[in-house]
From TrEMBL, chains A, B, C:
Pfam families the UniProt entry points to: Ribonuc_L-PSP (PF01042)
Name of the protein in question: Endoribonuclease L-PSP
Lineage: Bacteria, Pseudomonadati, Pseudomonadota, Alphaproteobacteria, Caulobacterales
Record GO cellular component, one term: cytosol
SUPFAM superfamilies recorded: YjgF-like
Family assignment from sequence similarity: Belongs to the RutC family.
Molecular-function GO term, any one: deaminase activity
Length: 123, 123, 123
Protein backbone atom coordinates (compact mmCIF):
# COMPACT_ATOMS: atom_id res chain seq x y z
CA UNK A 1 0.00 0.00 0.00
CA UNK A 2 1.42 3.36 -0.99
CA UNK A 3 2.50 5.72 1.79
CA UNK A 4 1.23 8.61 -0.33
CA UNK A 5 -2.00 10.18 0.90
CA UNK A 6 -5.03 9.84 -1.34
CA UNK A 7 -7.73 12.49 -1.04
CA UNK A 8 -11.37 11.81 -1.82
CA UNK A 9 -13.19 15.05 -2.61
CA UNK A 10 -16.89 15.54 -1.91
CA UNK A 11 -19.06 15.42 -5.04
CA UNK A 12 -20.05 19.02 -4.27
CA UNK A 13 -18.15 22.24 -3.55
CA UNK A 14 -16.66 21.95 -0.08
CA UNK A 15 -13.85 23.42 1.99
CA UNK A 16 -12.56 19.96 2.89
CA UNK A 17 -12.31 16.41 1.58
CA UNK A 18 -14.68 13.59 2.45
CA UNK A 19 -11.83 11.21 3.25
CA UNK A 20 -8.07 10.88 3.15
CA UNK A 21 -6.31 7.55 3.02
CA UNK A 22 -2.75 7.23 4.33
CA UNK A 23 -1.39 3.73 4.04
CA UNK A 24 -3.87 1.61 6.00
CA UNK A 25 -5.48 4.48 7.85
CA UNK A 26 -8.59 6.28 6.61
CA UNK A 27 -9.56 9.66 8.06
CA UNK A 28 -13.15 10.79 7.47
CA UNK A 29 -14.55 14.29 7.78
CA UNK A 30 -17.16 14.81 10.45
CA UNK A 31 -20.59 13.40 9.61
CA UNK A 32 -23.97 14.69 10.75
CA UNK A 33 -27.44 13.28 10.14
CA UNK A 34 -28.29 15.12 6.93
CA UNK A 35 -29.46 13.75 3.61
CA UNK A 36 -28.08 14.52 0.14
CA UNK A 37 -30.05 17.76 0.09
CA UNK A 38 -28.56 18.95 3.35
CA UNK A 39 -31.74 18.38 5.33
CA UNK A 40 -31.35 17.04 8.84
CA UNK A 41 -33.38 14.00 9.84
CA UNK A 42 -36.25 14.79 12.21
CA UNK A 43 -35.57 13.92 15.83
CA UNK A 44 -32.48 12.69 17.63
CA UNK A 45 -32.80 8.98 16.92
CA UNK A 46 -33.44 9.66 13.24
CA UNK A 47 -30.43 11.97 13.13
CA UNK A 48 -28.23 9.27 14.64
CA UNK A 49 -29.54 6.67 12.18
CA UNK A 50 -28.91 8.98 9.22
CA UNK A 51 -25.49 9.97 10.54
CA UNK A 52 -24.46 6.33 10.91
CA UNK A 53 -25.80 5.66 7.40
CA UNK A 54 -23.65 8.53 6.12
CA UNK A 55 -20.55 7.11 7.81
CA UNK A 56 -21.36 3.69 6.37
CA UNK A 57 -21.72 5.22 2.89
CA UNK A 58 -18.29 6.87 3.18
CA UNK A 59 -16.74 3.62 4.34
CA UNK A 60 -18.46 1.68 1.56
CA UNK A 61 -16.49 3.69 -1.01
CA UNK A 62 -13.47 1.82 0.34
CA UNK A 63 -15.26 -1.51 0.60
CA UNK A 64 -15.32 -1.14 4.36
CA UNK A 65 -18.09 -1.62 6.91
CA UNK A 66 -18.65 0.02 10.27
CA UNK A 67 -16.48 -2.66 11.88
CA UNK A 68 -13.48 -0.97 10.22
CA UNK A 69 -13.83 1.97 12.61
CA UNK A 70 -11.04 2.21 15.16
CA UNK A 71 -11.62 5.64 16.71
CA UNK A 72 -14.63 7.96 16.89
CA UNK A 73 -15.19 11.34 18.46
CA UNK A 74 -18.78 12.24 19.27
CA UNK A 75 -19.98 15.83 19.64
CA UNK A 76 -23.41 16.47 21.12
CA UNK A 77 -25.34 19.65 21.77
CA UNK A 78 -27.07 17.82 24.64
CA UNK A 79 -24.98 15.34 26.59
CA UNK A 80 -28.23 13.95 27.99
CA UNK A 81 -28.53 12.17 24.64
CA UNK A 82 -25.21 10.36 24.90
CA UNK A 83 -26.71 7.16 26.29
CA UNK A 84 -29.21 7.05 23.46
CA UNK A 85 -26.38 7.43 20.94
CA UNK A 86 -24.30 4.79 22.71
CA UNK A 87 -27.16 2.31 22.55
CA UNK A 88 -27.86 2.90 18.85
CA UNK A 89 -24.18 2.89 17.94
CA UNK A 90 -23.22 -0.25 19.87
CA UNK A 91 -26.14 -2.08 18.25
CA UNK A 92 -24.40 -1.68 14.87
CA UNK A 93 -21.45 -3.79 16.01
CA UNK A 94 -23.15 -6.84 17.54
CA UNK A 95 -20.22 -9.16 18.29
CA UNK A 96 -17.56 -7.09 16.56
CA UNK A 97 -15.07 -5.03 18.55
CA UNK A 98 -15.98 -1.41 19.17
CA UNK A 99 -13.78 1.58 18.37
CA UNK A 100 -12.38 3.86 21.05
CA UNK A 101 -14.48 6.95 21.69
CA UNK A 102 -14.49 10.34 23.31
CA UNK A 103 -17.66 12.39 23.68
CA UNK A 104 -18.29 15.96 24.73
CA UNK A 105 -20.92 18.68 24.74
CA UNK A 106 -20.63 21.48 22.18
CA UNK A 107 -22.42 24.79 21.81
CA UNK A 108 -23.40 24.29 18.17
CA UNK A 109 -22.80 22.10 15.11
CA UNK A 110 -23.09 22.62 11.37
CA UNK A 111 -26.72 22.91 10.22
CA UNK A 112 -27.68 23.03 13.89
CA UNK A 113 -27.29 19.28 14.06
CA UNK A 114 -27.69 17.65 17.47
CA UNK A 115 -24.77 15.28 16.93
CA UNK A 116 -21.64 14.92 14.81
CA UNK A 117 -19.18 12.06 14.59
CA UNK A 118 -15.59 12.13 13.40
CA UNK A 119 -14.12 8.76 12.46
CA UNK A 120 -10.84 7.04 11.79
CA UNK A 121 -10.98 3.63 10.12
CA UNK A 122 -8.56 0.88 9.18
CA UNK A 123 -8.30 -0.56 5.68
CA UNK B 1 4.32 -5.70 14.63
CA UNK B 2 1.10 -6.74 12.96
CA UNK B 3 -0.76 -4.13 10.91
CA UNK B 4 -4.01 -5.64 12.15
CA UNK B 5 -5.88 -3.58 14.72
CA UNK B 6 -6.20 -5.08 18.18
CA UNK B 7 -9.13 -3.97 20.32
CA UNK B 8 -9.05 -3.96 24.10
CA UNK B 9 -12.54 -4.03 25.53
CA UNK B 10 -13.45 -2.48 28.86
CA UNK B 11 -13.97 -5.04 31.66
CA UNK B 12 -17.57 -3.78 31.88
CA UNK B 13 -20.38 -3.26 29.39
CA UNK B 14 -19.53 -0.24 27.25
CA UNK B 15 -20.38 1.24 23.87
CA UNK B 16 -16.71 1.53 22.97
CA UNK B 17 -13.33 -0.07 23.56
CA UNK B 18 -10.77 1.08 26.10
CA UNK B 19 -7.95 1.01 23.55
CA UNK B 20 -7.14 0.05 19.99
CA UNK B 21 -3.64 -0.75 18.85
CA UNK B 22 -2.70 -0.32 15.18
CA UNK B 23 0.91 -1.21 14.50
CA UNK B 24 2.88 1.08 16.80
CA UNK B 25 0.04 3.49 17.49
CA UNK B 26 -2.29 3.14 20.47
CA UNK B 27 -5.59 5.03 20.57
CA UNK B 28 -7.25 5.38 23.97
CA UNK B 29 -10.84 6.29 24.72
CA UNK B 30 -11.39 9.53 26.58
CA UNK B 31 -10.57 9.38 30.29
CA UNK B 32 -12.15 11.36 33.10
CA UNK B 33 -11.29 11.46 36.80
CA UNK B 34 -13.58 8.70 38.04
CA UNK B 35 -12.78 5.63 40.09
CA UNK B 36 -13.75 2.01 39.38
CA UNK B 37 -17.21 2.67 40.78
CA UNK B 38 -17.81 5.59 38.46
CA UNK B 39 -17.45 8.19 41.21
CA UNK B 40 -15.66 11.40 40.29
CA UNK B 41 -12.83 12.59 42.50
CA UNK B 42 -13.74 15.60 44.62
CA UNK B 43 -12.36 18.89 43.33
CA UNK B 44 -10.54 19.84 40.14
CA UNK B 45 -7.01 18.91 41.17
CA UNK B 46 -8.17 15.55 42.48
CA UNK B 47 -10.07 14.94 39.25
CA UNK B 48 -6.96 15.67 37.23
CA UNK B 49 -4.84 13.38 39.42
CA UNK B 50 -7.39 10.55 39.08
CA UNK B 51 -7.74 11.13 35.34
CA UNK B 52 -3.98 10.95 34.84
CA UNK B 53 -3.89 7.80 37.00
CA UNK B 54 -6.59 6.30 34.76
CA UNK B 55 -4.59 7.11 31.63
CA UNK B 56 -1.49 5.62 33.25
CA UNK B 57 -3.44 2.46 34.10
CA UNK B 58 -4.57 2.08 30.47
CA UNK B 59 -1.03 2.59 29.23
CA UNK B 60 0.34 0.14 31.79
CA UNK B 61 -1.68 -2.64 30.13
CA UNK B 62 0.72 -2.18 27.22
CA UNK B 63 3.79 -1.78 29.42
CA UNK B 64 3.84 1.91 28.61
CA UNK B 65 4.24 4.96 30.80
CA UNK B 66 2.93 8.49 30.38
CA UNK B 67 6.03 9.35 28.35
CA UNK B 68 4.59 7.18 25.55
CA UNK B 69 1.92 9.81 24.91
CA UNK B 70 2.34 11.68 21.64
CA UNK B 71 -0.93 13.59 21.33
CA UNK B 72 -3.59 14.63 23.83
CA UNK B 73 -6.82 16.56 23.51
CA UNK B 74 -8.10 18.24 26.66
CA UNK B 75 -11.74 19.17 27.17
CA UNK B 76 -12.66 21.44 30.07
CA UNK B 77 -15.97 22.77 31.30
CA UNK B 78 -14.08 25.82 32.63
CA UNK B 79 -11.12 27.01 30.58
CA UNK B 80 -10.04 29.00 33.62
CA UNK B 81 -8.71 25.68 34.92
CA UNK B 82 -6.45 25.02 31.93
CA UNK B 83 -3.34 26.45 33.59
CA UNK B 84 -3.89 24.27 36.62
CA UNK B 85 -4.18 21.21 34.38
CA UNK B 86 -1.09 22.24 32.41
CA UNK B 87 0.96 22.53 35.60
CA UNK B 88 -0.16 19.16 36.96
CA UNK B 89 0.25 17.43 33.61
CA UNK B 90 3.68 18.83 32.76
CA UNK B 91 4.92 17.78 36.22
CA UNK B 92 4.35 14.13 35.19
CA UNK B 93 6.96 14.37 32.44
CA UNK B 94 9.92 16.01 34.23
CA UNK B 95 12.69 15.88 31.59
CA UNK B 96 10.79 13.77 29.08
CA UNK B 97 9.33 15.29 25.92
CA UNK B 98 5.71 16.39 26.10
CA UNK B 99 2.96 15.35 23.68
CA UNK B 100 1.21 17.82 21.41
CA UNK B 101 -2.03 19.17 22.81
CA UNK B 102 -5.19 21.03 21.94
CA UNK B 103 -7.59 22.28 24.60
CA UNK B 104 -11.07 23.73 24.44
CA UNK B 105 -14.09 24.55 26.55
CA UNK B 106 -17.09 22.24 26.37
CA UNK B 107 -20.63 22.55 27.67
CA UNK B 108 -20.67 19.20 29.47
CA UNK B 109 -18.79 15.93 29.89
CA UNK B 110 -19.77 12.40 30.90
CA UNK B 111 -20.67 12.13 34.61
CA UNK B 112 -20.50 15.94 34.73
CA UNK B 113 -16.73 15.71 34.89
CA UNK B 114 -14.80 18.98 34.79
CA UNK B 115 -12.14 17.59 32.47
CA UNK B 116 -11.62 14.79 29.96
CA UNK B 117 -8.49 13.77 28.07
CA UNK B 118 -8.21 11.81 24.85
CA UNK B 119 -4.81 10.29 24.17
CA UNK B 120 -2.75 8.74 21.41
CA UNK B 121 0.39 6.88 22.42
CA UNK B 122 3.31 5.19 20.75
CA UNK B 123 4.40 1.63 21.47
CA UNK C 1 12.14 7.01 8.19
CA UNK C 2 12.53 6.05 11.82
CA UNK C 3 9.49 4.69 13.64
CA UNK C 4 10.69 6.52 16.75
CA UNK C 5 8.69 9.61 17.66
CA UNK C 6 10.52 12.92 17.48
CA UNK C 7 9.26 15.74 19.67
CA UNK C 8 9.70 19.40 18.77
CA UNK C 9 9.46 21.57 21.86
CA UNK C 10 8.20 25.13 21.76
CA UNK C 11 10.96 27.75 22.08
CA UNK C 12 9.27 28.88 25.30
CA UNK C 13 8.09 27.17 28.47
CA UNK C 14 4.99 25.15 27.64
CA UNK C 15 3.03 22.18 28.93
CA UNK C 16 3.13 20.48 25.53
CA UNK C 17 5.24 20.15 22.39
CA UNK C 18 4.73 22.13 19.20
CA UNK C 19 4.89 19.00 17.04
CA UNK C 20 5.54 15.29 17.18
CA UNK C 21 6.68 13.31 14.18
CA UNK C 22 5.95 9.57 13.99
CA UNK C 23 7.22 8.00 10.80
CA UNK C 24 5.50 9.97 8.06
CA UNK C 25 2.84 11.49 10.26
CA UNK C 26 3.21 14.88 11.92
CA UNK C 27 0.91 15.88 14.78
CA UNK C 28 0.73 19.60 15.59
CA UNK C 29 -0.56 21.21 18.76
CA UNK C 30 -3.60 23.42 18.38
CA UNK C 31 -2.93 26.82 16.83
CA UNK C 32 -4.77 30.06 17.46
CA UNK C 33 -4.32 33.45 15.81
CA UNK C 34 -1.77 34.95 18.18
CA UNK C 35 1.60 36.52 17.45
CA UNK C 36 4.95 35.75 19.08
CA UNK C 37 4.00 37.96 22.02
CA UNK C 38 0.77 36.09 22.64
CA UNK C 39 -1.43 38.88 21.29
CA UNK C 40 -4.46 37.83 19.28
CA UNK C 41 -4.99 39.43 15.89
CA UNK C 42 -7.83 41.94 15.84
CA UNK C 43 -11.04 40.65 14.27
CA UNK C 44 -12.08 37.20 13.07
CA UNK C 45 -10.59 37.34 9.57
CA UNK C 46 -7.28 38.59 10.94
CA UNK C 47 -7.30 35.84 13.56
CA UNK C 48 -7.84 33.23 10.87
CA UNK C 49 -5.05 34.69 8.71
CA UNK C 50 -2.64 34.71 11.67
CA UNK C 51 -3.70 31.21 12.74
CA UNK C 52 -3.06 29.85 9.24
CA UNK C 53 0.29 31.66 9.19
CA UNK C 54 1.15 29.98 12.50
CA UNK C 55 0.26 26.56 11.11
CA UNK C 56 2.32 27.31 8.01
CA UNK C 57 5.28 28.31 10.20
CA UNK C 58 5.07 25.03 12.13
CA UNK C 59 4.91 23.05 8.90
CA UNK C 60 7.81 25.04 7.41
CA UNK C 61 10.09 23.67 10.15
CA UNK C 62 9.62 20.33 8.41
CA UNK C 63 9.90 21.78 4.90
CA UNK C 64 6.17 21.28 4.45
CA UNK C 65 3.47 23.56 3.11
CA UNK C 66 -0.23 23.74 3.92
CA UNK C 67 -0.89 21.14 1.22
CA UNK C 68 0.73 18.57 3.54
CA UNK C 69 -2.28 18.77 5.86
CA UNK C 70 -4.43 15.65 5.86
CA UNK C 71 -6.78 16.25 8.78
CA UNK C 72 -7.90 19.37 10.65
CA UNK C 73 -10.26 19.96 13.55
CA UNK C 74 -11.73 23.44 13.83
CA UNK C 75 -13.08 24.84 17.10
CA UNK C 76 -15.10 28.05 17.01
CA UNK C 77 -16.71 30.10 19.73
CA UNK C 78 -19.29 31.22 17.14
CA UNK C 79 -20.32 28.65 14.54
CA UNK C 80 -21.79 31.54 12.53
CA UNK C 81 -18.20 32.22 11.47
CA UNK C 82 -17.60 28.74 10.05
CA UNK C 83 -18.38 29.74 6.48
CA UNK C 84 -15.97 32.64 6.70
CA UNK C 85 -13.24 30.28 7.94
CA UNK C 86 -14.08 27.75 5.22
CA UNK C 87 -13.71 30.39 2.52
CA UNK C 88 -10.39 31.70 3.82
CA UNK C 89 -9.03 28.21 4.42
CA UNK C 90 -10.03 26.71 1.07
CA UNK C 91 -8.44 29.70 -0.70
CA UNK C 92 -5.05 28.53 0.63
CA UNK C 93 -5.25 25.29 -1.32
CA UNK C 94 -6.24 26.48 -4.81
CA UNK C 95 -6.05 23.29 -6.90
CA UNK C 96 -4.53 21.11 -4.21
CA UNK C 97 -6.56 18.50 -2.36
CA UNK C 98 -8.12 19.60 0.92
CA UNK C 99 -7.75 17.79 4.25
CA UNK C 100 -10.66 16.19 6.04
CA UNK C 101 -12.27 18.39 8.66
CA UNK C 102 -14.61 18.43 11.59
CA UNK C 103 -15.87 21.66 13.15
CA UNK C 104 -17.77 22.42 16.32
CA UNK C 105 -18.74 25.22 18.65
CA UNK C 106 -16.89 25.55 21.95
CA UNK C 107 -17.53 27.64 25.04
CA UNK C 108 -14.04 29.14 25.23
CA UNK C 109 -10.52 28.83 23.83
CA UNK C 110 -7.05 29.75 25.10
CA UNK C 111 -6.49 33.54 25.23
CA UNK C 112 -10.18 33.92 24.44
CA UNK C 113 -9.45 33.20 20.80
CA UNK C 114 -12.42 32.93 18.44
CA UNK C 115 -10.98 29.96 16.60
CA UNK C 116 -8.42 27.18 17.06
CA UNK C 117 -7.23 24.55 14.61
CA UNK C 118 -5.62 21.19 15.34
CA UNK C 119 -3.74 19.63 12.44
CA UNK C 120 -2.25 16.36 11.28
CA UNK C 121 0.11 16.47 8.31
CA UNK C 122 1.99 14.03 6.14
CA UNK C 123 5.72 14.20 5.51
Amino acid sequence: MSPEPTFYAYPFDAAFSEAVRIGNTLYLSGHIGDDDNGNLADGFEAEVAQMIANVAASLARFDLGLDALISVRVMLTDMGQLECFNRLFAACFSDKPLPVCSAFGVTQLALNAAIEIECVARL
